[in-house]
Amino acid sequence: MPNPLTDETVNTLKGYVLDLKLRNLSSQTVDAYEYANRKFLGWAQKEPKFVRTSDIKAYINCLIDKSRKPRTINLTIAALCSFYDGYLGRRLFTRIRRLKLPKAIPVVLSKQEINSLIHACENPMHKLMIRFLYSTGVRSGELVKVRSEHIDFDNMQLRVQEGKGKKDRLTIISEQLCNELTDKDGYLFMSNRGKHITRETAENIVRGAARKAGIRRRVFPHAIRASFASHLYDAGVPIQKIQALLGHSSARTTSIYIRSSVIHTKGIGNPLDAL
Questions:
Q1: Where are the domains of the chain?
Q2: 7-87 has which fold?
Q3: pLDDT digits over 249-269, tens only?
């Protein structure tokens, strides 16, 4: 068993966490960075001031040998770099590079599969969630925080509050949903404890619906987001508009979601209304 961290190390990490919060990083990023640094220091059995580049390289190789996912390793590298170079000014990362990630194409469901997902849900909230994901293209972490006051019912728009990168944006929402949600108040997707559901809960709901619908591929909320983008593109919506709806900083990222030819139409019709 590794020895517990020294008081000096614990205090240094507390200062680091405070610095991350002052930089207005998301709570998920702060927690992930702190956890990654604690794990490394527990493995290295050294105080931060004695850590060397060779220690970090050895730890990364250890993670690779344990078949950790490249994204997990890159998160660890980012966290350690943030701590040692960014916070402590150690400059240990001049010769450490992130792993190259595989370029996986997102799962895109057909309209028939989206329909099957929706009708496989017996729970009304589960059904609403899948329809909402397909209607707006939001991420699961954005979905769970949506409140009724974020919806502009007159213009059929949803304001995504503090999406990825803490950026607000506007996306479309179905006329069907606007008509159904006018009497809603507070969070749209509540847990039994009176708070919004977690991202993990949303992902489990989608996976469960996919199993019931007989869809054999791995289906997560992100697949519904990719389907939203792909179906809009099929309907003739320009990629720049889809990019804005998804909140991508680059059209190159959006293009990964697109898989079909263009059918030219006027304006942006919501995919849920076309089912």
A1: 7-87, 111-274
A2: DNA polymerase; domain 1 (1.10.150)
A3: 888 888 887 754 344 444 677
C-alpha dihedral sign at 245, 272, 138, 185:
positive
Q: What's the predicted TM-score (pTM) here? A: 0.69
Contact 206, 224 (CB under 8 A): yes
Q: How far apart are CA 202 and CA 223, in angstroms?
A: 13
Q: How far apart are CA 107 and CA 138, in angstroms?
A: 15
- d(C-alpha 275, C-alpha 270), whole Å: 9
Residue 97: pLDDT band (50, 70, 90) is confident
State whether the Cα torsion 238-241-246-251 is positive or negative: positive
Q: At what angle do helices 124-136 and 199-213 cross, to 10 degrees?
A: 100
Q: Is 167 exposed, middle or buried (0-12, 13-18, 19+ CB in 10 A)?
A: exposed
Sign of the alpha-carbon dihedral angle for 169, 174, 178, 180: negative
Place of tokens 């995919």: 271
